[in-house]
Amino acid sequence: MVPETDQERTEHFNRMSLKFSEFYKGKTMMLPKVPINDLGAFSYWYTPGIAAVSTHISKDTESSFELTGRWNSVAILTDGTRVLGLGNVGPEAAMAVMEGKALIFNYLGGVNAVPIPIRTRTKEEFITVARALEPSFGGYNLEDIESPKCFFILEQLQKDLSIPAWHDDQLGTASIILAGLINALRVVGKKIEDARIVLFGSGAANIAAAHLLMAAGFKAGNLIIADSKGILHPEREDMDTLMLNNPWKYQLAMSTNGERRKGPSDGAFKGADVIISAARPGPDTIKPEWIKTMNSDPIIFALANPVPEIWPNVAKEAGAKVIATGRGDFPNQINNSLIFPGVFRGVLDARSRGVNFKIMVKASYEIANFVKDPTADKIVPTMENWELYPQVASAVARATVEEGLARRNNSTEGFYNIAREIIEENRNAYRKLVDGKIIRKLPEMD
Amino acid sequence: MEVKMELGKLEEKDVEKVLELVMRLKKLNQEFDSTFEVNEESREDAIKLLKGIAADRECYFAQVAKSRGKIAGIIVAEFRKRVFYNPPMEARILEIYIMPEFRRSSVGQMLVDSLYEECRKRGIDLVTAEFPSLNIIALNFYKKMGYREIVSVYGKQISKK
Q1: pLDDT(B80) > 90
Q2: How confident is the model over A230-257, as pLDDT tens digits?
Q3: How many CB atoms lie within 10 A of CB A272?
Q4: Chain A CB within 8 Å of residue B51 CB
Q5: Contact (CB, 8 A) for A140 and A74
Q6: Residue B3: predicted pLDDT
Q7: Is B139 on the interface with A (CB under 8 A)?
Q8: Contact residues, chain B, for A243 at CB < 8 Å
Q9: What is the largest distance, in Å, between two alpha-carbon atoms of chain B?
Q10: In this complex, which of B28, B31, B99 lies closest to A235 when CB atoms are compared?
Q11: How far apart are CA A205 and CA A303, in angstroms?
Q12: Which of A8, A52, A108, A193 is packed most tightly, with the most Cβ within 10 A?
């Protein structure tokens, strides 16, 4: 039985997590996917026969995507510097979390994700390691890396690599925010080009979201970024520090906030249509009276975990029309797991060389359009919408073709069928492991 | 970005606003090196200093760039005698700061050019600039304009007793 209060529920899950981790000792494993009828099989799966495959690849390294498992392999790379809300816990501790991520990758996207927490100190070291590992993978998912280091690393890797590099805390969160926002605006009948958006909090997710929103047609001048130092504008005292340490935020200071609003961050709410908050956990980070200063039919995304910046019912009482949080126990969960499995399925199926904002915008629209009749309580799908993942995958794969990044061409439908088959086969294999009791049943809780 | 800029000599009425820009520059220096920790109580002295610079146009060149009446950037240089060397005079750039929104619009270059023009009038052909060694933004700025390292100042904090 799951306890009622937040505190008890958290403790309950903590106990389960510790106990199960000790029981299973790791959440994923490597299994053969080829028949080994007798030991002679190693003469073609391994030496001498495999030399022919090796020779072939050495002459044409691109064929590594077809003759080995590279095409479906993703490295989950982290230095463990910003793990969940825990902070810098180090790479060993990050492994537990990355294994969980790998599990979602596999279960929802049929992706062979390999958790690789690495011990690096500087961004340069991280980039060197990531470059070195490229030959083994079809894509990189960067995870739980502190800001602004994560921006430098992602930008450099996207330039250097010929496989997609994705930082889920930036790009995944930004994409699902955009998907939710598209439908929230549909619900209140407002247009993207008119919408006045406040990004409350200026961590990796909101910085990436601001850039993605502009790529999706939101007007830079209509965006306002506000954080603990107040509203972001070109004359703010910390501009030079930002130029030096966080050029992505600096750039936003130059391009957003067309009306040049200044002052404390609550002043950003006045006249806004949308608040996207990824700030300090609540419940009092956003005050009801601030919402009352907003434009008609306010949209509030209160995404802090575990406690949203304002409780949904309090926001509603203050006049909010559409409310989204990061939690599954309220309507409209803004959840990265809706996006990254499909995105990676898509880029892998197209053997893409990269991923960019245009592709992400397409993914976000695919998710938004998946919800047939969006309402205030239903702006995003939920994780159990199985159809979502191959659909996002095919939209992404097709977009990589249109962007000239794909190594493999196909129609949206063709990519859909490929994605669907891979995900289903993977799920069937998993079910057989469970049914055959190869995956052991969960131990009883005391 | 094309912005219309007006250049003019620093006048006493602009000193308070210009100090804001100078303080930003000093706070940036503080980011790089702890020996440049900004003294927040120095405001009055700083104003006195800037007023002195504004008044002494023989020894100093203090030029302000304005866009629609708003201060976009400043340059302060001092003309110095070089007793032992040739060339016998140099213009030493002490401060240069451009407000963030006016960067990448060649305001910095305009200000430096206006100093060069003044130097030519005075027959001075050596321009130098001083800044904290670790300030890479300043370093890149001057390198881009063709400056090279010609003097080093080394420092060390010694114990108080």
Answers
A1: yes
A2: 999 999 999 999 999 999 999 999 999 9
A3: 25
A4: no
A5: yes
A6: 65
A7: no
A8: 100, 137
A9: 56
A10: B99
A11: 10
A12: A108
Give the architecture-level CATH label for domain A173-325: 3-Layer(aba) Sandwich (3.40)
Percent over 90 (pLDDT), chain A:
95
> Once rounded to an integer, what is the mean pLDDT over residues A193-222?
97
SS3 A303: coil
Which residues of A are tagged catalytic? 46, 101
Q: Where are the domains of chain A?
A: 27-163, 173-325, 336-435
* pLDDT, position A4: 72
Q: Which amino acid is at B123?
A: G
Six-digit token pair at A229? 């130092």
Contact B28 A253 (CB under 8 A): no
Our CA-based measurement puts residue A254 at a distance from the nearest CA of chain B, in whole angstroms, of 6
* β-strand partners of A299: A274, A322
Tokens coding A112: 């062979």
- Chain B residue at shortest CA distance from A244: B137
Residue with structure tokens 């490295």?
A: A75
Tokens of A9: 């529920």
Average pLDDT of span A357-370: 98
Query: What is the C-alpha separation between A381 and A395, in angstroms, rounded?
Result: 16
- Whether the per-residue pLDDT at A338 is higher than 90: the answer is yes
Kindly state the percentage of chain B with pLDDT values over 90.
Answer: 93
What pLDDT does A8 receive?
Answer: 84
Q: Does B100 touch chain A (CB under 8 A)?
A: yes
Nearest residue to A272 via CA among A196, A191, A328, A379: A196
Q: Identify whether the C-beta of residue A309 lies closer than 8 Å to the C-beta of residue A300.
A: no
Among B141, B139, B70, which Cα is nearest to B106's? B141
* Overall average pLDDT of the A266-274 stretch: 98
Interface confidence, given as ipTM, is: 0.86
**A423-446 per-position pLDDT tens digit:** 999 999 999 999 999 999 999 987
pLDDT, mean of residues A136-142: 98
Contact B24 A244 (CB under 8 A): no
pLDDT at residue A29, rounded to an integer:
93
Cβ contacts of residue B72 below 8 Å, gap of 6+? B3, B5, B65, B66, B98, B99, B102, B107
Q: Which pLDDT tens digit goes with each residue over A11-59?
A: 899 999 999 999 999 999 999 999 999 999 999 999 999 999 999 999 9
Best CA proximity match to A139, nearest among A287, A359, A331 = A359
Res B31 pLDDT > 70:
yes
A-interface mutation test, from B28, B101, B135, most A Cβ less than 10 A away: B101
Across the strands, what pairs with A289?
none
CA distance A280 to chain B (A): 26
Structure tokens given for A61 = 């390294």
Between CA A380 and CA A367 the distance in angstroms is 7
Task: Domains for chain B: give ranges and CATH numbers.
Answer: 6-144 (3.40.630.30)
Q: Which CATH architecture has domain A27-163?
A: 3-Layer(aba) Sandwich (3.40)
